Amino acid sequence: IETWPDAPEAKAAQFGRGRMLYALERWMEAFEAVEASFPRRPISHELNKRNELELRIGTKLLEYAETPVPGAKGQGKKTMNGFDAASRVFGAVVYNDPEGLFAPDALRLLGDAYRHGGRLEEAEAAYRRVIAEYPSYAQVDACKLGAAGCLLERMEKGAAVRNEDLLAARELLTSVRPDAVDGGTGPDELATRLNEQKAAKLLDQAAMYLRSGGAKGRAGAVFNFREIVRKYPATTAAETARRRLDELHEPADAAQETR
User: Fold this and answer.
1) What is the pLDDT of residues 27-46, one digit of tens each?
2) Pairwise CA distance, residues 56 & 64, whole Å
3) Which residue in 4, 82, 108, 176 is deepest, having the highest Cβ count within 10 Å?
4) 3-class secondary structure, 211
5) Phi and psi (nearest 5°) for 71?
6) How far apart are CA 58 and CA 69, in angstroms?
7) Among 118, 121, 88, 34, CA closest to 80
8) pTM of the model
9) What gap in Å lies between CA 162 and CA 164, rounded to an integer?
10) How many angstroms separate the Cα of 207 from the Cα of each of 151, 210, 212?
11) Which residues have CB under 8 Å from 120's CB, separation 6+?
């Protein structure tokens, strides 16, 4: 890499370096090495190998949630949290190969990272791009629910949501489950039903974190359980989250840890 930086072998060496750094759990260094490994005129299987590894890196970064990621520097050299770092990685996959095999997954995960990081308008845009550009994608329904959820979360936070936005959310939701919203369902009922689905999704993610094991997996699960209790206290998922927090001997409110 240092002696012949422009040689094709240097690109292959960078990719090998990225794989080794991934194995060492140095996620951002791994991402930067993989980015440096892209050939000038890559063929499809080379792109796929690199994009697949970057997707795995981004998924690992999501486990950091709102905590700082070692070595992840953003604008002004400020350390990025897991959601922001993962957004950068998933965005790179889409940018590097927008029509590639992994582009739909990267866009959906980009939406997830934006959404959990509170960047709701950007999340909705990512989900809608999946819906528009990849209508036969296996998880397009999840993107429709995600886009609808972003609209309603903005409304819940007091953002100015137009009637047409609410109608768009209804349309997205009923396109996934025609019986989910009847003709007379108003904003409150729709929000309640969607809250149940959003809470259930967070619960699934918490289970994934616990299966991954280790301190990071536990921290990610606890964060999700607390988010369910804080954002969706009246849902059935919140009852499960409270029980799991008790089993983990963790308070439902993070502020209680310092008392």
Assistant:
1) 999 999 999 998 777 677 88
2) 14
3) 82
4) helix
5) 80, 5
6) 12
7) 88
8) 0.68
9) 5
10) 26, 5, 9
11) 114, 150, 153, 154
